[in-house]
Write a structure and sequence with these properties.
Layout lengths: L1 H5 L8 H12 L3 H4 L2 H17 L3 E6 L2 E6 L2 H19 L4 E2 L3 E6 L9 H11 L2 E10 L2 E6 L4 H12 L7 E4 L3 E9 L6 H10 L5 E4 L6 H8 L3 H7 L13 E4 L8 E13 L3 E10 L3 E5 L4 E12 L2 E14 L4 E8 L19 E3 L2 E3 L2 E3 L2 E4 L5 E3 L4 E8 L5 E6 L4 E11 L6 E2 L4 E5 L9 E8 L2 E3 L7
Parallel strand pairs: 12-16
Antiparallel strand pairs: 1-2, 1-4, 3-5, 5-6, 5-8, 7-11, 9-10, 11-14, 13-16, 14-15, 17-20, 18-19, 20-27, 21-26, 22-23, 22-25, 23-24, 24-26, 24-27, 27-28
Helix pairs in contact: 5-6, 7-8
Length: 466
C-alpha cells in the first residue's frame, strides 16, 4: 500500500487528502476483512474521487465564493502578490483582514479567472490591515497614525497651538493614551491630517476667505458658528485685525482634545459699592436724591485663571486683601402720590424752557387742551415727574408725542417733538430727557405742546406748575 500511494503523482491540494486517508487505512483491518480485489476497488474509487472531484479552485471569503482560479497554487500566488503590492504602496507590512479559504470545484473553463482578473477581484473584495499608533481619548480610539513617533508629536503640537503666558501650567483635560493597535490601512492618518482632526473634530475643514468690509461677527453670523468656536478653530488669530484674503477655518465641531492652561494672577481692582434706597414722603413719586454718594473700595486679589483651548473657562479667587472698604451710596426716592385738586399745586416741573405762547382754553373757537411753550428746535424736553411711559410715536395732529403716567390717574403729554428718546413701558425720573422740541403734526413752528390729564380729562397745566 505505501508503494501504491508513494507512486501516485500528487496534484495541488491533494496532499492532505492522501495523508488523512493513509492514516485511516493504517488503523483499519480492511485487507483482513475483505479480499484483495475488493480492497483494490475501494482504493481506486477513493483515488478517483480525489483526482477527478474538481478541475478548478474556488476562492472563498466570508463563506462565499468570490473567484475561481485554475488551481489553489495560483490562487495563493495571486493573493500573495496582491498583499506584497499593497504593502509596497502603504510603505508597511499589511495583512488580509478576512479569512480566505480554498476548495476544489468543477466548472466550465470560461468561468476560471486569469491572474490579473483574480487579483482585481481580491483587491475589490478584501480589506487590508496593519498596525498603527492609536491616540485614545477617555477610552475611545479617536485617531490612528501611520508613524509611531507622530502620536507624541501630535500631543506636543496641540499643547503649543493656543497662546499661553510664560508661567502657565499646560495640561490636557482628557485622559489620553497611546497604543499600538491593528487597524484597516485606510483608517491610518499622517500627522497633518491628524492635526486637523484633533483641532476641529473633523478632517474635512470648510474655509472662508475674508473680503473687504468683513468683521468676525459678520462671519460668525453668516456661517452660523458662534464666536468662541470660530476663535478656537483659528488659534493665534487677532480678532481685531482681519486682513483681506485671510483664510479662516470654519468648524462647528468640538476639538477632540482640550488644552487647559492655568496660572495665578494678582491684580488691583475696585470693589463695587452697594446702593441703599430709602423712601421719603416729602418727595413725589419718581423723584430721587442722592443723600450720600457711593465710593468704590479697593482690593488686591489673586486669581487662579483657567483657560480651555485659549478661552477663559474659570476664575477662582485664591487670596484677597482689602485696602479700602466700599462706601454704600444712599438714595432717597419719593413715595408721595401726586394728587390733583381744583386749586392745583406745584407738583410738576416745567417740561422745557420757554414762555407760554398759547394758553389753555378756547382758541379760534376751539378748545386748546394744553399750553404751548416757545422753545428752539431741538431743545431738550424733560419728564415733569417720575412715572411710566405709556405711549410713544406719531399721533395725528400731535405729531411725534410721548405720554407719561404718574399714578393716581395723572398723565402728562408732550407733543410736536422732533425726536423721541424713550420707549413705551420705560420708567423715567423727574427731569429725565424724553425727547427734543420739534414741529411735527399740526404745528406752524417749533414749540412744545404740553398737556396734563387727570382721570381722562385735560386740566390746565399751569395749575400744576410752580
Amino acid at each position: 500500500m505505501p508503494l501504491f500511494f508513494g507512486g501516485l503523482r500528487r496534484l495541488p491540494g491533494q496532499e492532505k487528502f492522501f495523508t488523512s486517508f493513509k492514516r485511516w487505512l493504517s488503523g483499519q483491518n480492511v485487507f483482513r476483512q475483505m479480499g484483495l480485489g475488493a480492497a483494490l476497488c475501494l482504493i481506486l474509487a477513493v483515488t478517483a474521487f480525489a483526482f477527478f472531484g474538481g478541475n478548478a479552485c474556488a476562492v472563498i471569503v466570508g463563506g462565499r465564493v468570490v473567484a475561481i482560479a485554475d488551481n489553489e497554487k495560483n490562487a495563493r500566488k495571486a493573493l500573495g502578490e496582491l498583499v506584497e503590492l499593497k504593502s509596497e504602496q502603504a510603505g508597511r507590512a499589511l495583512a488580509v483582514g478576512e479569512k480566505v479559504s480554498y476548495r476544489g470545484i468543477r466548472v466550465n473553463k470560461d468561468e476560471v479567472s486569469d491572474m490579473g482578473t483574480l487579483k482585481e477581484i481580491l483587491d475589490n473584495t478584501l480589506s487590508f490591515r496593519t498596525t498603527g499608533t492609536a491616540v485614545i481619548v477617555n477610552g475611545d480610539t479617536k485617531i490612528i497614525l501611520k508613524q509611531k513617533d507622530d502620536a507624541q508629536k501630535l500631543l506636543d503640537w496641540i499643547k503649543s497651538v493656543y497662546p499661553v503666558e510664560p508661567d502657565d501650567q499646560v495640561n490636557i483635560k482628557e485622559t489620553v493614551e497611546i497604543a499600538e493597535v491593528p487597524a484597516p490601512v485606510n483608517d491610518l492618518l499622517d500627522l497633518e491630517d491628524a492635526k486637523k482632526l484633533v483641532l476641529l473634530g473633523t478632517s474635512k475643514i470648510q474655509q472662508y476667505t475674508v473680503k473687504e468690509g468683513d468683521t468676525l461677527e459678520d462671519i460668525s453670523a453668516a456661517s452660523n458658528i458662534n464666536l468662541e468656536q470660530l476663535l478656537a478653530a483659528n488659534p493665534g488669530m487677532d480678532p481685531d485685525r482681519l486682513s483681506i484674503g485671510q483664510v479662516l477655518n470654519l468648524s462647528k465641531e468640538e476639538p477632540l482634545i482640550t488644552v487647559v492652561a492655568t496660572r495665578q494672577e494678582t491684580v488691583q481692582e475696585e470693589i463695587p459699592y452697594q446702593v441703599e434706597v430709602k423712601k421719603d414722603d416729602n418727595l413725589f413719586l419718581g423723584e430721587k436724591k442722592v443723600v450720600r454718594k457711593g465710593v468704590p473700595g479697593q482690593r488686591t486679589v489673586t486669581y487662579r485663571i483657567t483657560r480651555e483651548n485659549g478661552l477663559e473657562a474659570g476664575r477662582e479667587v485664591c487670596e484677597q486683601n482689602i485696602t479700602s472698604e466700599a462706601i454704600t451710596e444712599v438714595v432717597v426716592k419719593g413715595s408721595q402720590t401726586m394728587l390733583a385738586s381744583r386749586g392745583g399745586s406745584a407738583h410738576l416741573s416745567w417740561p422745557c424752557s420757554g414762555s407760554i405762547v398759547s394758553p389753555f382754553g378756547i382758541r379760534d373757537g376751539r378748545m386748546h387742551e394744553g399750553i404751548d411753550l416757545d422753545a428752539g428746535y431741538g431743545s431738550p424736553v424733560i419728564s415733569s415727574a417720575g412715572g411710566t411711559v405709556i405711549a410713544t410715536g406719531w399721533e395725528g395732529g400731535y405729531g411725534k408725542e410721548v405720554e407719561v403716567s404718574h399714578g393716581s390717574g395723572v398723565v402728562t403729554r408732550y407733543a410736536h417733538l422732533s425726536s423721541i428718546n424713550v420707549s413705551t413701558g420705560q420708567q423715567v425720573d423727574r427731569g429725565q430727557v424724553i425727547g427734543l422740541v420739534g414741529a411735527t403734526g399740526n404745528a406752524t413752528g417749533p414749540h412744545l405742546h404740553f398737556e396734563v390729564i387727570v382721570g381722562g380729562q385735560q386740566r390746565n397745566p399751569v395749575n400744576f406748575l410752580p
